[in-house]
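Per reviewer request, we include the raw input and output of the structure prediction for the construct analysed in the revised manuscript.
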Amino acid sequence: MQNLIKTVAFCSALSLLTGCSYFSVYKRDLPQGNLIKPEMVEQLKPGMSREQVIYVMGSPLLTAPFSEDSWDYVYRLKKADGEIINKRVTLTFAGDSLSKIDKSGDIDQETVIVPDLDIDPRAAQPNRAESKAGAADLPEER
């Protein structure tokens, strides 16, 4: 009877420890916001128009609610290993011209984004039944 109790206790402790083990489920990098690269920020110069800024940086993630003279580009990357990279660029405009550039975070750190290779190749194929293009516009299936 004591051996049975010891065995059950050992199995219970072992199962609890495996739940806290170092081997866990697969985790992936989680990027959020506007991708901010150092070469993008280097291209920003005071005096640029809003259209030029959008061409270089893309649309801003945040604009000031009461004034459209401040644009915020925010990027956050939570890596699978727990490391967090934060980048923020705040652009202030005077009229239609860029007047001030504020940077915070690891702007100079190059961000490497690994593409998800688990994509089903069939997902990229057009659905011929729902397509509005003519039959001559669609590629032939092999």
